[in-house]
Amino acid sequence: MTERPAKQAIAELRRIDHIVVAVRSLDQAGDFYRSLGFQVGARNKHPWGTENRLIQFGSSFVELITIGESAPLSPPHEARQFSFGAFVREYLKQREGLAMLVLSSNNAERDAALFADSIGDFETFSFERTGGKPDGATTRVAFSLAFARDSTAPQAGFFVSQQHTPEHF
Predict the structure, then answer these.
(1) What are the pLDDT digits (tens) for 106-121?
(2) DSSP alpha helices (H): ranges in 13-166?
């Protein structure tokens, strides 16, 4: 058995990109974190029915997320498609709190292929949206996500995120 070169092993180490905290009231959660001294970002809307606000920490962040008030019904999970909106909706039926752990990725397509053999054969999900900067200006952000799922822990979410515009975070 050959050993992996140290450089390759180091390249596989990942940082926490962000954690996803599911909340029933995005405004109340934002007010709570603001009362603790955090700067809470503007409300962002996703086309699959979720809304979020971000709390930035250098290269990582907390994503407060909820289902939008006038959100379209998120599609359910399908054979190779993880439904982010359906996951959040189902999670909030049970509880609020830490719903997902997100690690960084340099190549979400490669990660999805690696996950397929063990923790989730889902297609990579890519999207972009307009984001709000602290000064009120808008910017474009874009991501590719590779999801994983453990059938023994269905209420724990995990994915990796490849940020295509990391300079905006």
Answers:
(1) 999 999 999 998 888 8
(2) 26-35, 84-94, 108-116
Structure tokens at 7: 């450089």
- CA distance linking residue 95 with residue 24, whole number of Å: 9
Span 30-64, pLDDT tens digits: 999 999 999 999 898 888 889 999 999 988 999 99
Place of tokens 């009120």: 136
Q: What is the CATH number of domain 6-168?
A: 3.10.180.10
Q: Where are the domains of the chain?
A: 6-168
Contact 111, 146 (CB under 8 A): yes
Calculate the alpha carbon distances from 61 to 49, 50, 163 in Å. 21, 17, 13
Cα 136 from Cα 155, distance rounded (Å): 35
Quote the pTM value: 0.84
